Amino acid sequence: MNANPIVSDETFSEKEEDSHVKIVNLQKVFPVSRATLFNKKIENYIALDGINLDIKKNTFVSLIGPSGCGKSTLLNLLAGLDSFTSGEIFIEGKHLTGPGPDRGVIFQNYALMPWLTAAGNIDYALETACPELSPSQRREKSRYFLNMVGLERSMDKFPRQISGGMKQRVAIARALSINPTMLLMDEPFGALDALTRSYLQEEVLKIWEKNRVTALLITHSIEEALLMSDKIVLMSSGPSANIADIIDVPLPRPRIRKIIEKNSLFIDIKLKLEEHLLRETRAVEESS
């Protein structure tokens, strides 16, 4: 993680004040090695092709699509963890060229350092992203963000000593601690049991309502996307996956699960999403 976001000073010609992320004609190609009888042959696998997307500031956007459509690939590109083949990504009007503390990333597998305590994991992120902070300031911020996710009493425990849900809460606290303007979440609740998943969905929503950063969530759950999002981006099947549609979710906030699940708009959008996923999943199976 770098102390400053790696973006160039060059901006796109018509700056949109309310745009946080702008993706223009993005393509990602992976070289694939295939063994032949006498040698190895390198072929290109086009994971993403022609991706165009505009994410407004302080909105919550979900990315949904069939397995293998490049959702995580797109998130990694936005995080600056991988390079794209062609196209452009702008973050707040500037070209993206690498990772930075303006984007907090939450992974499905927690990505905690096992030799550090809960507080130590946050302290390390703060030391890297905010080197101007003193050790006592980092300790205080670690305590503050662990308290935000209900883990102040577990701040001195190691990852092996806490549950999966608690590990993910540490990961959420770590991502928020560097004061990002955008949260990138790659199926953060996917490995959790149903009860813990529901609890953390609601906790993340409460935190987001309070802080209102731009959020991008990758999920396979239609209900999760509907509960949390302002917009849902539908990905087509791969290879050469692109954006098939973008659905607005004009459900009122704050959202209470038991109430919105009975809303006719919730039901209508859910049916549309189910039809899309079924159609794209069939396309994957027929092409395999």
Main features:
single chain, 288 residues, alpha/beta, six-stranded mixed beta sheet, five-stranded antiparallel beta sheet, 8 helices, 11 strands, globular, disordered N terminus
- The whole-angstrom Rg is 20 Å
Q: Taking strands numbered 1, 2, ... along the chain, how are they ordered across the largest sheet? A: 7-8-9-4-10-11
Low-confidence stretches: 1-8, 10-14
Helix/strand order: EEEEHEEEHHHEHEHEEHH
The coarse overall form would be globular
Supply the number of helical segments: 8
Question: What can you see in these coordinates?
Answer:
This protein is of the alpha/beta class. The chain is built from 8 helices and 11 strands. The chain has helices at about 70-80, 120-130, 135-150, 165-175, 195-210, 220-230, 255-260, 265-285; strands at about 5-10, 20-35, 40-55, 60-65, 85-90, 95, 105, 180-185, 215-220, 230-235, 245-250. A 6-stranded mixed beta sheet has the order 7-8-9-4-10-11, with helices on both faces. A 5-stranded antiparallel beta sheet has the order 1-6-5-2-3, with helices on one face. Strand 8, helix 5 (about 195-210) and strand 9 (about 215-220) form a beta-alpha-beta unit. Helix 2 (about 120-130) crosses helix 3 and helix 2 (about 120-130) runs parallel beside helix 4. Mean pLDDT is about 90; it is low at about 1-10 and about 10-15.
